[in-house]
Amino acid sequence: MRPSRSAIAALAGQGTRVLSYPWALLILGATVSTAANAVHAILSVQNGRGVVPPLVSALVASMPPVVLLLITHLSVVLVQRTAPAKPAKPIKATKPKPAAKERTASAPVEVETVPDTVDELIGQF
What we know:
Helix content: 55-70%
Strand content: under 5%
Radius of gyration: 29 Å
Structural class: mainly alpha
Shape: rod-shaped
């Protein structure tokens, strides 16, 4: 479940569609872990290894995965609240200014420009 927790923390604030897959994995893993812990606790009590009622034993054994799920949710909420309200404005690349020297007409000089957008930059490759 750790990769799902890491993905959820890394993708916090990216929108519901992006986060649905890691959350689904985490919830499924926590559900399976909770059920397995509860069954193991009940079987242990029924086999005479404990004096605690089976229901209490199952509830106590089910808590670790549930708490893990709640801690992950709390981490995402805290990341979203501490993130800036607005995304930072993208920095636009500026075109270089021509040199101040006077050029002769004998040899043209090529000036490389910096792309204005990311799409233009990607388009060069």
